[in-house]
Amino acid sequence: MRTVDELRSRLQLPAISQIGFVVWDADRMAENYSSVFGVGPWAIYDFAPDKYWFREELSPLKLRMAKAMLGDVELVLSQPVEGRSLHREFLETCGEGMHSLTFNTPDYDSVFERFVEAGFEPVMRAETYVETYKGHLRACYFDTRSVCGTLFEIRWASWDAEG
Q: What percent of the chain has pLDDT over 90?
């Protein structure tokens, strides 16, 4: 059985860049976080990737996203709107709550391969242009719940690479 230390060493992960929550209503929850905790400003937009695979099957997807910084980590509220996704499955089985940890990487392909070599299959992937950030995105979720209790997402975004 893999341990968290073995996994971290094998995957060579950078620091956590995002903490993802799945919610029924991203706009309402962003407003709640703003008024109760002072979190914000929020970038709120619809995410409908050009290419999206759910369990390696090309599928349509639309999520309502709300994002705000908490220090060096981005808080992401994801509301499934259309299509099959891990977000929808999570809401239907667990309700609202923490869903994933994201690791930004400048070398997406190498990190992707390390996850696959460690025995994790990609369960949700997207490649797209994101108008809100005027840049391109590649992202993949791996089911690491058996080791860490949550999903891991790896992500490359051109707007991060430029900064």
A: 80
